[in-house]
Amino acid sequence: MFENLNWWEIGALLLVALLIFGDRLPAVISDGLRMLRNLRNMARNATGDLSRELGTDIQLEDLHPKAFIRKHLLSEEDEQAIRKPLEGTFEKLRSDLTDVRREVDDVAASADIRSSSGSTASTSGTGSDVTPAGRRAFDADAT
Known about the structure:
By secondary structure, this protein is mostly helical. The protein contains 4 helices and no strands. It is flat and about 75 Å long. The protein starts with 6 loop residues before the first helix and ends in a 32-residue tail after the last helix.
């Protein structure tokens, strides 16, 4: 909870709390802790009541609407029927991205000066290895 604060900041907060509450500081701390315990008990009781009413075992994490619907309202067949069209789309997207990555790797490998014929300038002046004066050659490994 206080991982962002260093010891000086925590000490300053305690000093400010002592100045504001004075002699009542221990009572305020105990009231705050009691309130926190009561809130935890209320949440635990609410999940227990929901579990009894629905006839299933509900954890606090299951109260998220998506998780609740997936776990308690959808049957296995319904969930598979929903997933089937999405899985086909996902696999097609994955194969397309794999093809794009392969093409990018091929372009990067062909543009790499070091892997070409070994010289950085061609004698005819028309080769792909020629770089204009004052400009650095593209280095795929540097990016």
